[in-house]
Each structure stands twice: as structure tokens, then as C-alpha cells.
Design goal:
hpI Integrase, Chain A; mainly alpha; 4 domains
Length: 364
């Protein structure tokens, strides 16, 4: 499978073979759009859900200028692969369709109208629910942007401010808390936590991860380096990472027990991990470590927080997590507060040192 640019028209295409047939799809005017489509097709093929006819109809059959919210929502619900529970986006879609109307043109929905939708919802439901409504609406528009069905995302957080996330749901582990948690976990859970805290990968992807989805290099029987890339279903953005040392340690520990399905992380019975069993085991471990207000989602926040504190640029971190730079800045802006203070102190020390050593200071 490859992407290429047609010299005459300047358009990008995805070119590949599927079940003995060569297929080509227009992917828009940018290499980025073509790579997004390529990743999507690869994921569909790997999951056994690739439907070339439906994809071609989706790409060819949409009149962008006359695209209605109802048609866009219908296409989104049919083709978007959610990482969460079944029916979540159907439930959220009913809310925005009821407010805007299914016949409303997508081109007519701007940030001001989404802001009015936000204000109307705040009068009806909790701030937490409104936040989820805006995130799901923004997810649909990001998905549509990836297919070049829309140009703008009127629900992105820099345009429409989301209600603050409830206290405790965005906490990150400190190094000491991480060590305390690891100390009380069984080996299989240590592998999962080590992976999650050092990659920021979502719970669903972690549970379903296959060895075939990782690009690994070995020395003998030991993994010494590697990488992975996939399309994050929640945002529609590509996730790309090189594996760090803690991740390699988690994988080397996990590969000591193998399963016929190729699943990477297994439970204490050497079986793929059930979600409820994972949540129960984590709850028990957090309690044993004396930690409150944490869940699996906290590992993703931990990864982002540690990365920013280590000096990883937000634009790089965005690519590693499947987020936009704007989202990283908005979501984790608080992480840099202490770093800003440190920077001010360093600049102050540097300034005083320069003044002390300057000729004018010595003359005085």
C-alpha cells in the first residue's frame, strides 16, 4: 500500500491491492490526508472490516456544499470506529440533531452556533455531560476534516470553551505514587501499567493490542527497540511512537506468556484481559497503595504530564498521543506552571550574573 501525488492535478491518492484487485482512492490535496486514509484502510483490513464499495461511495458520493448535518452524522455513525461502548455516539448525536436539525447545512454551523448549543445544554444537564456533548461533536467534525468533507471544526476547544472536567478525573501520578502502585500489583498488571504510563495509549487499545501491531527489533529473544503507529479512533488522528526503555521492559515481561490470539497483555490466567476485571484489579491496587481519585484514564494524563515536564514539545506530544497541538496546550496547560517559575528563576540568575560581570558594574 502506498500514497502518491498525481503530477498533473496535484491530488493525492491511496493505491493498494485488496483480495487480488488493485484499488485507488482520491485522498484530497495533501499528503497528510492521504496518510490518514491509508492508516484507516490498514486498520479496517487488519480488523477484517474493510468495505471498498462503501468507502468509494463515501468518498465520491458526498456533495460538500450541500452536506447536511443529518447526512454527515449518518455517515459518521456508519463508518467511525469508536473505542468506547456501543451506542455512545448514537446517543450524543440525538442531542445535536435535535438542537440544530438534521437538514441544517454543515457549512452554516460555526463556533457561535456551537456556543449557543453549549449554553442551551448547560440549562438542561450537568457541566460534565455538556463537556462530553462538545467532545463528541468535535470528534465528528475532526473525522470529517480527515476526509476533507469540512474545512473547519467549529467545536474545537479553542473556539468553544468546554466546561471544566470534574475534579479528580484528570490527575496524574507522581513518580512516588507510581512506585507505590507498582509495588502492590501482580506481574500482569505491572506490565499493563508500565505500558500505559509510558505510552499514554487508551484502555481499549491496550487490551486489544496484538504483537502483530508492533514493529519490534530483537537481539536473541529480547526486544531491544521498536515502534508503533495506528489511527486513534476517538480523534481520527495518527498516533506514532518509538518505544522507550520502560515500554520495552513491560513488553519483554509480557512476552514471557503467549496467547494463541496474539494478544500482548494477559491476565493472571494467561487470557486476554476482560475490561471489568481490569477495572476491579486497578481499583484494588489503588486502594492498597493508598491512592484515591485515579483510574485507567489517569495513566494517559500521567504520560502527558511526565512528557511535558521532561521537555517534550506540545506539537511532538500531540503526534505521539493522537491530539492536536491546540488540545495539548489547552488540556495540559497547568503542567507548565512550575516550569514557568523555574524558567523565571533561571533567567533572573542569568541576568544578575551578566550584570555582575559587566564592565559598568565593575567600574561602579
Amino acid at each position: 500500500m502506498r500514497v502518491y501525488r498525481e503530477q498533473k492535478s496535484g491530488r493525492w491518492y491511496v493505491d493498494y491491492f485488496f483480495r487480488g484487485k488493485r484499488l485507488q482512492y482520491k485522498a484530497g490535496s495533501s499528503r497528510r490526508a492521504a496518510e490518514r486514509l491509508q492508516l484507516r484502510i490498514e486498520n479496517e483490513i487488519n480488523a477484517g472490516k474493510h468495505n471498498p464499495a462503501a468507502l468509494r461511495q463515501e468518498i465520491r458520493g458526498t456533495n460538500k456544499a450541500g452536506l447536511t448535518l443529518g447526512k454527515l452524522t449518518e455517515s459518521f455513525l456508519r463508518h467511525y470506529r469508536s473505542r468506547g461502548r456501543t451506542g455512545y455516539y448514537e446517543e450524543k448525536a440525538r442531542g445535536w440533531l435535535r438542537y440544530f436539525g438534521p437538514e441544517t447545512l454543515v457549512a452554516d454551523i460555526d463556533a457561535l452556533k456551537v456556543q449557543r448549543y453549549r449554553n442551551a445544554r448547560i440549562e438542561q444537564v450537568s457541566p460534565s455531560m455538556v463537556r462530553k456533548d462538545l467532545i463528541s461533536l468535535g470528534t465528528m467534525f475532526r473525522w470529517a476534516q480527515g476526509l476533507e468533507l469540512v474545512k473547519e471544526n467549529p467545536a474545537e476547544p479553542l473556539k468553544v470553551k468546554r466546561p471544566p472536567e470534574p475534579a479528580g478525573t484528570s490527575r496524574a501520578l507522581t513518580r512516588d505514587e507510581y512506585d507505590r502502585l507498582i509495588a502492590v500489583c501482580p506481574n500482569w498488571l505491572v506490565c499493563v501499567i508500565g505500558w500505559a504510563c509510558h505510552t499514554g495509549v487508551d484502555k481499549g487499545v491496550t487490551r486489544r493490542l496484538r504483537w502483530s501491531g508492533l514493529n519490534l527489533q530483537y537481539e536473541g529473544r529480547r526486544i531491544v527497540s521498536g515502534s508503533f503507529k495506528f489511527l486513534r479512533s476517538k480523534t481520527g488522528k495518527a498516533v506514532r511512537q518509538e518505544l522507550s526503555r520502560p515500554v520495552l521492559e513491560a513488553l519483554n515481561q509480557a512476552r514471557k506468556v503467549r496467547h494463541a490470539s496474539g494478544t500482548v497483555f494477559l491476565d493472571d490466567r494467561s487470557q486476554p484481559i476482560d475490561e471489568k476485571a481490569l477495572d476491579w484489579a486497578l481499583g484494588k491496587a489503588f486502594k492498597a497503595a493508598g491512592l484515591q481519585g485515579f483510574n485507567f484514564r489517569s495513566f494517559r494524563h500521567t504520560y502527558a504530564t511526565w512528557a511535558l515536564r521532561a521537555g517534550v514539545h506540545p506539537s511532538v506530544l500531540g503526534k505521539m498521543m493522537g491530539h492536536s497541538t491546540a488540545f495539548i496546550v489547552d488540556r495540559y496547560l497547568h503542567v507548565g506552571d512550575d516550569l514557568l517559575k523555574q524558567a523565571a528563576e533561571l533567567l533572573g540568575v542569568s541576568y544578575m550574573g551578566e550584570r555582575k560581570n559587566s564592565p559598568s558594574e565593575k567600574e561602579q
